[in-house]
Amino acid sequence: MVQAPSQPISLEAFLQLPETKPASEYTDGQIIQKPMPQGKHSTIQTEFAMTVNIAFKSRQVARAFCELRCTFAGRSIVPDVSVFAWQNIPRDPNGEIANVFPLAPDWAIEILSPEQSQTKVTKKSCTALIMERKWVG
Question: Span 109-121, mean pLDDT?
């Protein structure tokens, strides 16, 4: 669902809003609420993240996070699963994982729900990652 504010809203203002359930994302000046995950979606999401973490976390290669807000390149998205290379995981001054991730994930996974448009989800995720990584293609 696209929520059209009466006045344009900045990314900074969006980040000050209370979190929604399910999460809302900020892309191209629009606030878009993600669909509520259901059983099959949640199962795929959990199993995928667990598989990535079993394969890579103990060797400190990468780590998967579910429903993690990533803010970068004028956007704030919440992929179903975000995977970060170990050296890219933000840390706080104590060396623990930070609460805020001001960068794009190395790998953003979106699990399509039946009502989601593959084109819109792909465009949102790919455009955001390309903008952050400044890839030329």
Answer: 73
